[in-house]
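## retry 2 of 3
previous attempt timed out at serialization; input unchanged, resubmitting
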Amino acid sequence: MVLASLPRDEDADERIGELTELLRTAGAETIATVIQRRDMPDPRTYLGKGRLEEVKEIVEREEPEIVVAEGELTPGQQRALEDRLNTRVVDRTAVILDIFALHATTAEGKLQVELAQLEYYYARQEGLWQHLERLGGGVGTRGPGETQLEVDRRLIRTRMSRLRRRLGRVADSRELRRQGRQQSDVPRVALAGYTNAGKSSLMNRLTEANVSVNDALFETLDSTTRAIEHEGWRVLLSDTVGFIRHLPHQLVEAFASTLDEVNEADLLLHVVDASEPEHRREAQIAAAESVLKDIGADEIPRVLVLNKIDLVDDNGRTALSHRSSEALQVSATTGEGIELLRERLAELAKERMVDVQLIIPYHRGDLIAAVHADGHNVTQETNATGMHLSAMLPVASAGRIKAALAKDQSGS
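## retry succeeded, writing output
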């Protein structure tokens, strides 16, 4: 069951539809929806008196296991609703956290989700005992409720500290892997976009990565990085957690290390579900852009990729072309447009190359080997002073080789 107060929103249907899909992903069935339009949620009960009575009647008649608020509830609102409705009440953030817990598979993902849940419920735990805090402090005034509150707070804070330390160690290991990829001079590309836009399917089509793919929100939580080679050009492609409107800040913070894959990319492929109605598609694009801005990735170059184009008719394709002429229309299911996307990624690798003309002494066979290992279109000629090589090299590789040659010359 879903109840929603939507103040000053014109996208009520979209918000309710999104919450319904979240509940489906979490394994819950929506049996009734109550919508109330008002300027602000009631500060005590979230819903106004009339709508609250309507929800109470539905709860008594249908006996649902849970009532879900579309917005974010304060601890006081949640407690008041549970008292009035005599059933469990959660908000949208709790539903998303539950989905993340359901889909976390790696050790890091589970740690991130647990930390986010503890941070979220810590505030609720404080609110739970708030009425007992009025007992005050000092000798003779400390009640059992306050003592229990302090114990619970300490336990939660201790657990959160341990989780942060463990995640810090995991992040250090991840950073070492990233540094290794950076030193390889291989361009890095990240898939970003609204959840369930088909990023993982696209990843599998491009790299045969075997990333889990299901018709569910937040199916992918842990980043996966694989190499793509096209006509000799190589890039690293990372799949990351999907975005959603008003992504809870606990999740943005907890998944910071995973989202770093986006921040450190040379190019973002912003994947969008082309089969969505235009207003919903634009809302999802805006939501993804908002998250990218929140994590500091809004300045990274990006390519709009309209996925699931196989589900769009000819008129729809034409409209998409007019609206987003630079976007790539692809289908991870049928393979349509995939070759063009591969070519675009190969162009990225080419753009990071520089043409160099080098004369390397014969005794520096290591540098000659490095040119052949890192370079493209390598040609060589022998002359009296050494090996004359012409090649396209990554900027960093060219810099290292030139620095080594300069050091040799200065030493001689």
